[in-house]
Every structure is written in C-alpha cells, then in structure tokens.
Amino acid sequence: MDVTVVWAAIIALGLFMYVVLDGFDLGIGIVFPFFPDEKERNLMMNTVAPVWDGNETWLVLGGAGLFAVFPVVYSTVLSALYLPLIFMLACLIFRGVSFELRAKANRTRHLWDLAFIGGSTGAAFFQGIVLGAFLQGIPLDGSYAAFGWLTPFSLLTGLGLVVTYALLGCCWLVVKTEGDLQRRLHRVVWPLTIILLGFIAVVSLWTPLQDPNVAQRWFASGLFYRLLPVPFLVAVCAFLMHRAVRDRHHKTPFVLALALVLIGYLGLLVTLWPYAIPSSMTLWEAAAPRSSQMFTLVGAAVIIPIILSYTTMGYWVFRGKVRHDDQHHYH
C-alpha cells in the first residue's frame, strides 16, 4: 500500500468536503445583498444555523493532515501565502461572530448583516486567491515576493470561487425554502450557472497557457483523450440545470451544482498530479517518513468515520423545509 497516495486522497477528500459543505453556507452570505427583507434573511440563516460550524471541521482535517504528512508543503505554502490565508481566517471569524450576534442584536443588526456578507464573500475570494497562487507554483527557495500571490490569474480564480459558492448557496436555499422566496431564488440560479461556466472556460484555457508543465501533461500525453469527456459532462450538467430551473425542481439544481464542483475538482487533481507543489515537488518528495504517515493514519481511521457520522446525523435531523414560523432560531 502506498500510504503517501492514501494520505493525499484523505486530504483531497477533506478539502472537497469543505468546499461543498462550507461552500453553500458561505454562498448564502454572498447572495444576502439580493434579499434585503429581514424575515427572509432570518429564514436563509436558519437553513444552515444547526450545521454551519460543523462544516469547517473538514478544513481543520485538511490542514492538520497537511501539517502531519506533508510538512514541507505546509511550511512552504503557508509562508508564501501567509497574507491571503490570514485575510481568509479574519473573514471566517467575522462570519462566525455575525452568526452568533446577529440574532441577538436589534439596533446593530444591519452591521452584523454587513459582517456576514463581507466575511462570507471575503473568505470565498481569498480561498480562490490561494488556489490560483498555488496553481501558478511556489518556489522552494523562499524567493516568493510578499504580494506574489496577487496576480491576474489568482484574482480570476478568487472571483470564480465566489460565483461557485454563490451558486451552491442559491441551490441549497432552493432545497430548504418554498413559496415566493424559492421562486426568486430559482431565477438567480441559471444566471449564476452561466457566469460559472464562463469562469470554468477561462480558467481551463489560462491554466495550460501559464504553465508549460501543465500544457505538457494535458496535450503531449495520453491524458488529453481521457479529459475529452469533461467538457461534454459540463455541458450535460448545464443543460440539465436549465431544465431543472425551468421546471422549478427543488433538489435537482443542488445536485447538479455539486456535480459541476466535483468535475472541476477532479480536473484540478488531474492537473496537479503527481505534484504536492506544482512543477516543484512530487507527493513522495514532500512526504514525511512512512512510520509517521502510518502512525497518523491510525488516528485518521478513527476520526474520519466519527466526523462523517455526526455530519450525516446533523443534516438528517434538520432535513426538510425551513419555514417562517419555525422556532429553531440559532442560539
């Protein structure tokens, strides 16, 4: 068993679960400005109030796994991307505090609304910035400039992730709401899908153009033919999304949004493989000793089923529609 690959898969799973689960509750904050009615905002926040903080467990799992198994990546990437990561964490703090205080505030509620909107949008944007800067490559000699992460490509990926999370948030709210609010959310889903498809196309073209190594892996090997179904799958998801929105489906748009995210994420993993730091260091070069990996794998084998269990239970207990007259406000 190649334990390095197993750990890479665990970290990849943790990051994907974070993007999906925290993505849609960050997305709610991103679309908040389009729904100014206070009762509707209360309802929107109540759809994720019981589960939002548990969603961030996956980010902690991914970070802890990276620290334990790929310490070179942890030290190199965090040193180079220190500023955007600090900005992201500050935004997550603002978002979390607004969740706690907004329901209890009266005169300052509009300020906590702004904190929720800014924290959610900022966290998504800086996560996208980190992704773009990582894809562009980070030198191992520490020569990365203080603002080397701020490039046109990273700005593009930052905005792309904001749109991705907004679409996930909209589709989640379609699942959890009904009536006039759900109808207006349906109208937002398709324009967001079109914008996301545009970002997917531009990033897919830009990525091989900016990195000759990526272009080599995509086009000068057999990988190109295996990637050919990807645009077709994206087009199928877009077609089904249009039909689902037109026919006012409740759950299908969310499933299709998840499918689009999964396709993009798998494309990202294929692009990065087998590098831990793009074009600089492979997974095996960056990995901790096998004994350390095996020791931490035992802990992961215990912890991951527990996280999956309480996450599943949380969503199962709070399944179904959330209505204006429900009393389970967040405390």
Please provide a written account of the structure.
The chain is mainly α and 331 residues long. The chain contains 15 helices and two strands. The protein has helices spanning 3-31, 38-46, 52-55, 57-69, 71-80, 82-102, 109-136, 152-176, 179-210, 212-219, 223-227, 229-246, 252-272, 283-286, 290-317; strands at 275-277, 281-282. 77% of the residues lie in helices and 2% in strands. α1 (3-31) packs antiparallel against α7 and α4 runs antiparallel to α15 (290-317). β1 (275-277) and β2 (281-282) form a beta hairpin. It has a single domain (3-317), classed as Up-down Bundle (Formate dehydrogenase/DMSO reductase fold), CATH 1.20.1630.
